[in-house]
Amino acid sequence: MTLRRETLDDGITLLTIDRPEARNALTPEIRGLFAEYCTSMAEDDAVRAVVITGAGDHFCAGGDVKTMGSHDPAARQERYSEMARVAEIVITFPKPLIAAVRGHAAGAGASIACLADIVVADDTAKFTVAFLNVGLVPDWGLTYTLPRRIGPAAARRLALTRARVDAAEGHRLGLVDILAGERNVMEVALGQARMLGASALGGYAAIKTMTEDREALRAALRTEAETQMERSRTWEHAEGVAAFKEKRKPDYARLR
């Protein structure tokens, strides 16, 4: 399994993206398991709260660029539609959802962290909205979640500049809720999960629903999927993917 699900005590479930050799880059299997697990956990009374993390030294390096660049329009359409579907399932998960971040959370990795109610990060955490590196735009609902966390201007700046944000700066911006500091990030995240999991979960779900804008969320997800589909057909995306595979810098200044 590339997304491990473990049942801990006090009704806590741990989801671990388990591809440390690839910095936990996402695959179609991982996307599918996110949807499957969150759907089943939402209906399981034994599950009180969920912690998402990555195996090894990193949270998630984003989408696996090695799987990008398909020339099949149907396959690309399925990829982006699936991302939107999974992101909505995770964002609207009715129970406490905590992200425990160490190391890189880049691209879709940053998106997944922002799907959580609480983001806990240690001093090694680095967030990068890196989609522009391969000529793409943010997805996994990041155009909805990031502005709501840090404000529209800061969200736009991070997407355009691809600036790497460390844990301290992320906390100042509102991207990180709790700094683990010298404490173990998993211990801090699990402590938050146990505290929130002891809440009245019906009320917890109601507050999440009241503070979300489902119409705006779905509009953002539709726009992300449509724009990614358009961008995936461009020479810039092809150049970004080729440069990554060839381990060089992309040349976006050249004439087409």
Largest sheet: 6 strands, mixed
- The amount of beta strand, in percent, is 15-25%
Output the structural class: alpha/beta
Report the average pLDDT across residues.
Answer: 93
**What's the Cα radius of gyration?**
18 Å
Estimate the global geometry from the Cα principal axes: globular
Overall number of structural domains: 1
Q: Name the CATH superfamily classification.
A: 2-enoyl-CoA Hydratase, Chain A, domain 1
Question: Helix fraction?
Answer: 40-55%
pLDDT < 50 runs, ≥5 residues: none
Q: SSE order, as H and E? A: EEHEHEEHEEHHEHEHHHH
* Strands in their spatial order, largest beta sheet: 1-2-3-4-6-9
Q: What is the class in the CATH system? A: Alpha Beta
CATH architecture: Alpha-Beta Complex
CATH topology category name: 2-enoyl-CoA Hydratase, Chain A, domain 1
Number of E strands = 9
Q: How many alpha or pi helices?
A: 10
Detailed description of the structure:
- The protein is α/β, with parallel strands linked by helices and about 260 residues long.
- It has a single domain, classed as 2-enoyl-CoA Hydratase, Chain A, domain 1, CATH 3.90.226.10.
- It is about 45% helix and about 15% strand.
- The strands form 2 sheets. A 6-stranded mixed β-sheet has the order 1-2-3-4-6-9, with helices on both faces.
- The longest helix is centred in the N-terminal third of the chain and has 19 residues, at about 75-90.
- The mean pLDDT is about 95.
